[in-house]
Structure formats: C-alpha cells, structure tokens
Amino acid sequence: MSKALPPIVLDHPLVRHKLTRLRDHNTSTAGFRRLTRELSLLLAYEATRSLSLVPRHIEAPSGPMEGEELDGKKLCFVSILRAGNGLLDGMLDLVPSARVGHIGLRRDHETLEVSEYYFNMPSDVPGRTCIVLDPMLATGHSAAAALTRVKAAGATNPIFACLLAVPEGIAHMAELHPDVQIVTCSIDSHLDEHGYIVPGLGDAGDRLFGTR
Ligand SMILES: O=P(O)(O)OC[C@H]1O[C@H](OP(=O)(O)OP(=O)(O)O)[C@H](O)[C@@H]1O
Ligand SMILES: O=c1cc[nH]c(=O)[nH]1
Ligand SMILES: [Mg+2]
C-alpha cells in the first residue's frame, strides 16, 4: 500500500488560544461560531499553501514587474453538512472567488456508519483543487465517504481540512485515501465509546447551530 501523507498540524499561538476557547463548554453559541470562523481563516491559509502559481505581468506604480497569480481553475470548498458550513465563511473570507459544493452526511449514533442525504457540486469539478471541510475527523467515516465522492466527481489533489482529528480517523483516511493531505488544528488523544473525540469540543454541529 502507498505511504500516506503525514497530517499537517497548525502549530501557532493564535490557533492554540482560539482552540482552547472553542473547546470550553462555557463558550456561547455566538462565541463558538465566531471562533470557528476565525480558526477556519487560519486553516485556509495553511490548506492553500501548496497551490501553484504562474507569472503575471503588471504595471506597478514604479514600473513594470513580473508578479504571480494562482494557476488554473478557481478553488472549490466542499462542506460536509451540517458542521462543515461553520468553516465556510472563514475560508471564503480568504478565497472569495472559490466555488462551493455540499455533501450531506449523517452519522448513525449507534453504528457510527454514515449515509448520504445530499450531494451538490459545481458541474466543472475536473481540474479543480477541492478542499473538503468538516470540523471533526473522528472515526473518519464521514471524511472518507466525502473524499470518495469528490474524487469520483473529478477533483484533482483533494485536501481535507478540519479543526480536530484523532489517530483513529487519520488511520482510516490513510487506508482509504493515502493521497489526501489532512490539515488540522490539533490531533487529539482518542475516541470515547460513543465515537466522540477526547478531549474534543463536543458535537460541533450542535454547538454551531445551538441545537442541543
Ligand atoms: O469521523 P466521523 O466518525 O464520521 O465523525 C465526524 C462527523 O460527525 C459529525 O457530523 P454529524 O453526523 O454529527 O452531523 P452534523 O454535522 O449534522 O451534526 C461531524 O461534523 C463529522 O461530519
Ligand atoms: O467529537 C465528535 C465526533 C464526531 N462529531 C462531532 O461533532 N464531535
Ligand atoms: Mg453532529
């Protein structure tokens, strides 16, 4: 089997500070949303590091110069519903021209298997770099299912960006998608008996949308 790409972990004081506030169960719904948006902007900065550039000639105030611009088609962010939507605004703050796809995946609380209830991608995915978004990489079933769909739609070199990952989810992705670069703000300790990340931040969707 091919060797999986090692995950990239953001090691920055701002990320660690904001992540601690995010994990705090006293943080309000509004605070959780704001912190998720801020963290996703920092995540976008790292997740887009490998994008390629082409030369671009411009007239600077001091005269002509060879600058650079992003190569190829516009980026596509793919949100895994619901909680992936919490990462979208920060990503779009940094890359406003990106296209957006959505994949609805529901995790069964007993079996931890996922089922798809929605799929909507831009029509011209082939040749686009897709960054799949979900705050949580727990068992990895949701991320792996989403990556399978995004690859089938023709995405080139897809990337997976999350706030928290655990070794179990990273191993599942390494088995099924060793070519996918994972970018995360933290690798937490383990999963509990209900498939929740420890220490984690609770249920990301519920905290973002105030549903529990
Ligand atoms: O790695 P996994 O074990 O698959 O778990 C991670 C998934 O669980 C959560 O979604 P959930 O099913 O709770 O849906 P929600 O976003 O609608 O709350 C989370 O947002 C991920 O999509
Ligand atoms: O800890 C977890 C695991 C899966 N989904 C969440 O929202 N939180
Ligand atoms: Mg949830």
From TrEMBL:
Q: What are the GO cellular component annotations? A: cytoplasm
**CDD domains in the cross-refs:** PRTases_typeI
Q: Does the keyword Coiled coil apply?
A: no
- What is the free-text note on the cofactor? Binds 1 Mg(2+) ion per subunit. The magnesium is bound as Mg-PRPP.
Domain Phosphoribosyltransferase, by residue range, is: 9-211
Broad enzyme group? transferase
The residues that hold uracil are I197, G202, D203, A204
Keywords of the record: Allosteric enzyme, Glycosyltransferase, GTP-binding, Magnesium, Nucleotide-binding, Transferase
Q: Which domain of life is it from?
A: Bacteria
A molecular function annotated in GO for this UniProt entry is:
magnesium ion binding
Reactions accelerated catalytically: UMP + diphosphate = 5-phospho-alpha-D-ribose 1-diphosphate + uracil
Q: Which cofactor does it need?
A: Mg(2+)
What modulates its activity? Allosterically activated by GTP.
Query: Biological process (GO) annotations?
Result: UMP salvage; uracil salvage
Which residues bind 5-phospho-alpha-D-ribose 1-diphosphate per the record?
R82, R107, D134, P135, M136, L137, A138, T139, G140, H141, S142, D203
Pathway-wise, it operates in:
Pyrimidine metabolism; UMP biosynthesis via salvage pathway; UMP from uracil: step 1/1
User: Which EC number(s) does UniProt give?
Assistant: 2.4.2.9
Pfam families hit by this protein? UPRTase (PF14681)
Q: Tell me its family.
A: Belongs to the UPRTase family.
User: Its function?
Assistant: Catalyzes the conversion of uracil and 5-phospho-alpha-D-ribose 1-diphosphate (PRPP) to UMP and diphosphate.
Tell me which HAMAP family the record gives: Upp_B (MF_01218_B)
Q: What is this protein called?
A: Uracil phosphoribosyltransferase
- Organism the protein comes from: Gluconobacter aidae
